[in-house]
Amino acid sequence: MKQILTHHSDARNDGGQRSAVGGHFIRNSHLDGNAFSWRAGDIGALLVHGFTATTAEVRLLGEYLHARGYTVSAPLLPGHGTSPDEMNRCTWRDWARAVEDAYAQLTEQCARVFVCGESMGALLTLYLASEHPEIVGLVCYAPALITARMWQARLFAPFVPYVKKPVRAPSDADARWKGYTVNPLRAVVQLNELQREVRRRLPRIQQPILVIQGRLDQAIDPRSGAVLLDAIGSRDKELRWLEHSTHCVILDREWERAAEWTYEFMQRLITKGVDSSETLGE
Fold first, then answer.
1. Residues of 41-52 as b/e, b for ≥16 C-beta within 10 angstroms?
2. How far from the centroid of its chain's Cα atoms is residue 260's Cα?
3. Residue 238 has what DSSP assignment?
4. Residues whose CB falls within 8 Å of the CB of residue 243, separated by 6 or more in sequence, listed in order
5. pLDDT at position 149, please?
6. Which end of the chain has fewer CB atoms < 10 Å from its terminal CB, N or C?
7. 3-state secondary structure of 36
């Protein structure tokens, strides 16, 4: 999720690469942003990408976890990887339904499932967790719980379909991220609705949660993780910071550390679950 408003988009993006098929502009169009599902063990990880992104955002994490025995699945959210106009026709409930469907499919293959999400994907992770207390644990990367100037999107959405994203200082994530070069404003309004819904649901969420944020993140309010953990019902909760990372912490220069923390968090909960089961069985 980037900051909301600058000026109307032209054909070029800030990375110098573009896709103009049907006038729909996608950064790094050569990358694979399709949904993926890779089978391994009986413990699953559902990976949810963020606003205007594609599954390229969670692919490195997916490869990392799959190599360590996890079955991983990542849906491509409705309206993503197609066109900004298509995204403007979607509601947050469409995105939540896609995540619900992917979760249902993953539970058919796996006895236990973790859910991990980046930015808006973190909000969808939290929403899913509020509906499914059986989820083992949650990892939220740069959760887009608080973002600036959402009122502007509501004001301009009836008149302006999308606006160009602001140009930022280069990061290692730039070449690895695939998605729109613009923010579709009706979709931004839907993101704001999702933020409000998730905040209402936080007290009912009980699963263990790890939040990872980048110190150099300019897309979300840096208080987002702390506000989330203060309101959530979970007892097992932790916020960790990556000192040299921007918004896409699972693609930026410290992505491997984020992946390592994720894996350690999952392994701890799996071991804890096994120990509890053995104790109960005695």
1. eebbbbbbbbbb
2. 17
3. E
4. 215, 254
5. 83
6. C
7. strand
Consecutive H or E run containing 140: strand 137-141
Say if CB 232 and CB 205 are below 8 A apart.
yes
Question: Is residue 13 left, alpha or beta, with left meaning phi > 0 and alpha meaning psi from -120 to 50?
Answer: beta
Q: Please tell me whether residue 139 adopts helix, strand or coil conformation.
A: strand
- Helix (H) / strand (E) element for 113: namely strand 112-118
Return the half-sphere exposure (C-beta side, CA atoms, 13 A cut-off) of residue 104: 7
What is the fold of 33-146+187-274?
A: Rossmann fold (3.40.50)
Burial 12-34 (b: 16+ CB within 10 A, else e): ebeeebbbeeeebbbbbbebebe
Locus of tokens 């916020």:
239
Place of tokens 């695939």: 178
Q: Where are the alpha helices (DSSP H) in the chain?
A: 56-67, 84-88, 92-107, 120-131, 150-156, 185-201, 224-231, 255-281
Residues 6+ apart with CB under 8 A from 151: none
Residue whose pair of structure tokens reads 């992104």 in the numeric block: 53
Enter the pTM of the model.
Answer: 0.90
Q: In what helix (H) or strand (E) does residue 138 lie, and over which residues does it extend?
A: strand 137-141
Q: What's the confidence (pLDDT) of residue 28? A: 96
The length of the chain in residues reads 282
